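Sample pair:
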Amino acid sequence: MVQIVLKRRFIKTLFLIIAGLFFLAPQGFANSMKDTLVAANYDDIRDLNPHLYGGEIFAQNMLFEGLVFLDQQGDPQPWLATSWKVSSDGTKYTFAIRKGVSFSDGTPFDAHIVKKNFDALLDNGKRHGWLESIRLMVAFEKSGHKSVNVLDDYTVEVNFSDSYYPFIVELGMTRPFRFLSPKCFKEGMTKNGVSCLVGTASYVLETHQLDEYAEFVVNPNYWGKKPEIKKIVIKVIPDNQARMWALQKGEIDMIYGLQLIFPRNFRQFEKTGEFGTVMSDPLSTRMLILNTQSPTLKDVKVRQALQHLTNKKIISENIMLGLEAPADTLFSRTVPYADIDLPAYEVDPAKAAALLQEAGWTKDGQVFQKNGKPLEIIVLYDSDKVIEKTIAQFLQSEWKKHGVLLRLQGEEAQSHRDRLNGGRYDIAFHVSWGVPYDPQSFMGGMRKPAHGDMVAQQGLKQKKKIDDTILAALKTVDEQDRQNKYTYVLETLHNEAVYIPLTYERNRAIFNKRVKNVGFNPSQFEIPFDRMKVE
């Protein structure tokens, strides 16, 4: 695995060296391309199978559509379904399918296509286990009934074994509930790959050169309003400074996404006034997750002490340069069901010291110790993310002043995820999923061993009640009951100090001023090219 990663990085680096000769356009090239927008990405678009998770979400969103879309306020709106009805008990959803829609290969879209795509998801149900809706559909099928039924050519019924309120919002996510032409299926399914990438959306993939670029052009047979930008070119530029240089030289028009734009770069471009710069509202939470099974952190008093040693204001102002506000709670109050009163953990080294002493740690010189061992904690971060390393180094310096030692451990993305999911860490960097996944999908994922949260919470005596309450919140059709259940979970996790929220992330973009209407979708992982235009 390490050799493969190093080989791929070498290839990308080599590509950057020769880019000026063989790939990057001459200065001003992007500006001369009428009806074309050139954007940069740090990685290849990879596997765009809409039913799996290996590809770039923004690219999947360009090719594939769902039954509903989420507007800029995050509210579900008709898309490939013109309307829907939900039974009073929340177990049955009936959709009216839009007529006159075809895939870009000419295949008509109808209720039978909807069922075929949903059946492919159910066939790969274990892979989609983080979605409670898939689990409930699979459970319904095990009872001897079909979860997805075609009532007529343009009407589909979806049945669950129990009520589930977030389903409509989940249908608005970029994956996996998007529709692929049946001509692309392999052996009638999609879990083992697809033979083509044909959707109903406003763009089609015209050209793809691995680790170099991808070109998307407007679907000439698109059923809806066609985008004004006729071609989108995505260039792979892994290096941050190379991306900024390409934008300054006019070789690309736009850099989009908080992972692609460091705070200092955003502020530099903003200050010059020569380029457009925009930021979204808060979307997700940048945080640390504390492993309650770690011998060092199993005592809640130690976890609470670390909360009181964490100066989020300095992180917000000095590291994020004011782009992200300090976070006091797992979710921003703007997230549904998260507008509740929770006392902030104020920066208070004296209180932190008292808590550590109550937990049996004593100060020996400059470092807290117990049973002859220093209070040393391993912090895991993604070595590909400069911001995480910078924050980790800041915390290492700050916490040391108050007797807590941090040992930093950076690993590449996949190793970081594997260690996080396996619980092989003390503290790790973590993020919530943002709208539209927060709170229901992110909290639902706490019940599954797929994202690290379940393992981290395993040391809590309330873990079973937390999981049961989350499941009950997803099922109840009573709004106040749902709020009460979410409140219990958020209060418990807050009081148990499982997470140290740092800042509320905001999406961002820097672009040539010839690009107009640059904005954001509710999901930070999508790019609304269809609303943009170039002059």
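Confidence is low (pLDDT under 50) at residues 1-7, 9-29.
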